[in-house]
Amino acid sequence: MSALGVAGRRILDVGCGRGKYPAAIGIDRSLATQADVICDWARGYPFADSQFDEVRLIHVIEEVDDILATLAEVHRVARPGARVVIVTPHYTDHSSYCSPTHRWHLSSFSLWFFSDKPREYDYYAPAQFRERRVEVKLLRLWRWLGLEFLVNRFRWFRRFWEYYLCFVIRGKHITFELEVIK
């Protein structure tokens, strides 16, 4: 199967649902989707190592059985330097809790575990990624008041917001952009 995205890049859309990313190879569990490949992604992806330039998990990571295994599998099928895009509800948003399929409720610091920086627990998560971008979307009122800008512009402010303010000034969703390190 060979789907080439923009500029000949191979893109994998994990859990593509009915809105598969254009020119990507979509995988999903359900036949009622736009998936090119139907598989149980908890058992691994049916692709050889280092096949993709980009892997997308849009509103999927919160539903998987095992985040460590999922990101290890993403790391396996991605080429060195590949882009990984993960979008998930922020743990303070109603959508994080309203679906019975959501197993995980994540913060903007949840994926530090996979960072290429010195890590204390790297034996649990040997797959390494470099954090390229983390963006938090806030509810409209807070965005309009400029708080979203502060949360995304200053890492120290984002940490302060998640420690002390996020249950009053709620997050909407988080976008992680990572780079695969092999």
N- to C-terminal separation?
24 Å
**Uncertain regions: pLDDT < 50 for 5+ in a row?**
none
CATH superfamily heading:
Vaccinia Virus protein VP39
The CATH architecture comes to 3-Layer(aba) Sandwich
How are the strands of the largest sheet arranged?
A: 3-2-1-4-5-7-6
Number of domains: 1
Q: What would you call the structural class?
A: alpha/beta
CATH T-level fold name: Rossmann fold
Helix content: 10-25%
Question: Could you tell me the strand content as a percent range?
Answer: 25-35%
Q: Quick check: average pLDDT?
A: 91
How large is the radius of gyration?
17 Å
CATH class, please? Alpha Beta
- Sequence of secondary-structure elements: EEEEHEHEHHHE
Task: Describe what this molecule looks like in 3D.
The chain is of the alpha/beta class and 182 residues long. It has a single domain (6-138, 173-181), classed as Vaccinia Virus protein VP39 (Rossmann fold). The chain has helices at residues 67-77, 94-98, 140-144, 147-153, 155-165; strands at 11-14, 25-28, 37-38, 52-58, 78-89, 128-138, 171-181. The chain has a 7-stranded mixed sheet. Helix 1 links the parallel strand 4 and strand 5. Helix 4 (147-153) crosses helix 5. It starts with 10 loop residues before the first strand and ends with a strand. 35% of the residues are buried. The model has no long low-confidence stretch (mean pLDDT 91).
